[in-house]
Amino acid sequence: MPLGILIALVVGGIAGIALLTHVFGFSAARRFADADEARAAFLREFPETRIDRVTLSADGAAALLETEDGPALAWAMGADTSARLLSEVRVEETPRGLRFRLPDMTAPCIDIALAPEDRAAWHSASGGAR
Amino acid sequence: MTPDLSYPDVVQMAVPIFIALILAELLWIALSRRGGRYETRDAVTSLVMGAGNVASGIALGFLAWGFFMLLWQITPLDLGSAWWVVALCFVLDDLRYYWVHRFGHRIRWVWASHVNHHSSQHYNLTTALRQTWTGTFTFMMVVRAPLILLGFHPAMMLFCGGLNLIYQFWIHTEAIGRLPRWVEAVMNTPSHHRVHHGRNPRYLDANYAGVFIVWDRLFGTFVAERDDERVDYGLVRNLGTFNPLRVAFHEWAAIFRDVTRPGLSWRARLAYAFAPPGWSHDGSRDTSAAIKEKHLARHPEDRGTPGFS
Q1: pTM for the full model?
Q2: pLDDT in the model for residue A3
Q3: Structural domain span for residue A87
Q4: What is the number of structural domains in chain A?
Q5: Which of B197, B254, B258 is nearest to B225 (CA)?
Q6: In angstroms, rounded to a whole number, what is the distance separating the alpha carbons of residues A79 and B122?
Q7: Across the interface, do A14 and B47 touch by the CB < 8 Å criterion?
Q8: Does A54 lie in the same domain as A112?
Q9: Cβ B240–A21 below 8 Å, yes or no?
Q10: Are residues A9 and A57 in the same domain?
């Protein structure tokens, strides 16, 4: 197959499929309905770790957890979730909330939307340096 | 000798079919609200990974091809190009695929290349295209050496490898349940391959087959999909990014970081590169064997059942 046609097919195919998935409503992000859902998302990644406390963000897109191994985050990854312990975290304030930077190539930067009045508590509980 | 044997690039020829089938699956899921899940960024990441795989093949394919042709020059054997030779080559290449795939899950150096294929939490036809950009650097092309030395022309072997890859495309779907018993007994199917993509402790390190599931049955790695245990797709520790560059290179970066840690013995450094994924010098991480053992400690009733025997 000529390279030009292959490139056109690939670029057009990716663009078309992306557009269709969006139009069909498959871009909606996961939201935790309650603390139990956030807890389950964390335990999915860290089944051995005891969770002491869960704080949901107002939009339900993330949760800050206090665990036996220290603070942790569970958050929406598209329609799914991911979770990390927050060792060596750096926290920055953004216009929409907080940005958690981890020395982890697979989750280097986690943006959480938070109301201004919640940010100090999340920052403090996460144990993050500025 | 048959030095000028050539076959079509079947994978490139199949690209329009891949796109058409993805559209069909997407429409089916959108209209029927069953048969799987799609998510925009996940799908785009998978498709970009697929495009990058084709690009890396074009850019780096000459390295493997040069190695294969070198072997072809030195082997005194030439099986020719009869149809039965192609058929035999397909079957033996599938056996080769089984072992390369098994190494891909059991040797961290090879896993660094293969991990991206398992990094989606979805299981649909786009997942099939979430392919490696770094396969050349695993040096798994050496596993093809015996076939060439036995007299299978490199072009025939790559043709069979392409057919193998195309076969595996359609099994990356939740839209197909289980097939007739004889098919499930012999062939790799959507059901068997769903298990392979599972992060459930039971399903880890199972069903490495490409086309024929008989290899797993033969070598003791077969686990059947269970109605009472839904497959949870993705990695043991799921990614927190959709960035294709991070998806492609994260495990290589992790190996580099581990191997260059200060204060390790050379044995530990080698183990960080070549031991099973999850190995660590201080036991702070879990291999799949450790994950299964910890699961059994929480669920002793599962001991001895498929995936835990």
Answers
A1: 0.95
A2: 87
A3: 35-126
A4: 2
A5: B197
A6: 9
A7: yes
A8: yes
A9: no
A10: no
